[in-house]
Amino acid sequence: MRQKFLLTGAVTFFFCASVFAESASAPVAASAKTSAGKPTQATPDNTSLQREIEQLKRQIKQLRPDITEAMLGLQIRHARLWFAGEAGDWELAAFQVHGLQDGLDGIVENYPEHAALQPERLGDILPAMMGAPMKTLRAAVDNKNKAEFERAFDGVSAACTGCHTVAGFTFLQIHRPKTSLLDNVSGTPVATSTAK
Ligand code: HEC
């Protein structure tokens, strides 16, 4: 969230800086024409502004988390979704499906030309591979149907693995989790023992 805010701020600043750079150079060009014959005014030095823009571009790049981090986010959502569905926590499961979709959309937005998928475009291949399985999964959760959910979950996992295979990461096989590592969130209140 904070990163997103910083990124937006940096992009806005960068945009303003480039608009300023353009408008700053325009009067100089105009005055060079009108003052033909007379000694030309010294052209303002734009190199420091240019340097600043380059620095901001580098900072924007650094602010964007690596695709690996985004994938780890998908892995967490994917695992938590499974246990929510198995527990029949359909509201929580719907929330996880939403999060998974958000994560996928963010990856398309941030890495549309990622090197791992070249010559294919990640921006094209991800929606093509994940679109239908995600839709089926959403429907299964909406229907609160466990058997349907399990089938749809496997469909999504296979699509995840499919992309890893295309990207040359065949060793990243995505499947049903066996153990819940993050079991501190539930759809309904859970009795907590205070006994020591
Ligand atoms: C568009 C293709 C694509 C899709 C779809 C995709 N992945 Fe990935 N995934 C990758 C790539 C590429 C990497 C390797 C990233 C890197 O360079 O570290 C990766 C890496 C991973 C990793 C390893 C992260 C690490 O560093 O340990 C996990 C876990 C993962 N993906 C989970 C998922 C899950 C879960 C899904 C489906 C919900 C999914 N991925 C869908 C392309 C994809």
UniProtKB/TrEMBL annotation:
The keyword Signal applies. Keywords: Signal. Residues 1-21 form the signal peptide. This is Cytochrome c. It comes from Pseudolysobacter antarcticus.
